[in-house]
Amino acid sequence: MAEKSYSVLIVEDDPAVRNLVSTALESRGYQHTAATTGKAAIACAATTTPDIMLLDLGLPDIDGVEVIKRVRTWSNMPIIVLSARSDDSDKIEALDAGADDYITKPFSVGELLARLRTTERHLSYRSENTAPQESQFVNDSLIIDYAAATVTLDGKELHLTPMEYKLLCLLAQNVDRVLTHQYILREVWGTSQDGDLASLRVFMGTLRKKIETNPSRPRYIQTHVGVGYRMVRV
Ligand code: CA
């Protein structure tokens, strides 16, 4: 059972998927409501203020990406995309519009519930963070001291280049969110040229050598092939 009863808005026009999702949510004690069109989803998000939105992209009236953009004008609620669109470009478009995560159809109930648990952890950090921003980021044995601009792993200070440090901070500030290559390039390098992807990979490689015990099986930073990277809350 979910410890706190989170409310979930399901936005899905396919009754079979909607029923599957609502049955799964009910089994774990989530409150839930459903909308079958994009316009109804936006209205529902504004009036019932759910904690989390599960959003199909192919809706009968307006596209799901448009729903994300509209909701993001006033709300930070986590949005998890559930979509049959499996192209990287579709995932990237949804993430860049402000989605927090995506699940490709067909998906298992187990996967859906796991992503919801991740999102809930993210939500509980957010509510803790209504206090002033922490000056330290702690993720298991990795610690970033923002004030001192230092990083330690298992108590030992790491020597990062300024770019590696910037990249690590960006991932840490978005812990548990998938960041697209374009977003990272824009935020860290101030550019989004495709050619820069190669240098991003190089920086990620050297950063991993410093923060991961086994860089070929990274614990802290996951690769989403063709999409981007995510720092995992260990
Ligand atoms: Ca659909």
Characterise this structure.
The strands form three sheets. This protein has a five-stranded parallel sheet with strand order 2-1-3-4-5, with helices on both faces. The chain has a four-stranded antiparallel sheet with strand order 6-7-8-9, covered by helices on one side. The protein has a three-stranded antiparallel sheet with strand order 10-12-11. The model has no long low-confidence stretch (mean pLDDT 89). The protein has 234 residues and is of the alpha/beta class. The longest helix has 20 residues, at 109-128. The chain has eight helices and twelve strands. It has helices spanning 15-27, 38-48, 64-72, 88-97, 109-128, 162-173, 181-189, 197-211; strands spanning 7-11, 31-35, 52-56, 79-83, 101-104, 136-139, 142-145, 150-153, 156-158, 178-180, 221-224, 228-231. It has two domains: 7-127, Rossmann fold (3-Layer(aba) Sandwich); 136-231, Orthogonal Bundle (Arc Repressor Mutant, subunit A).
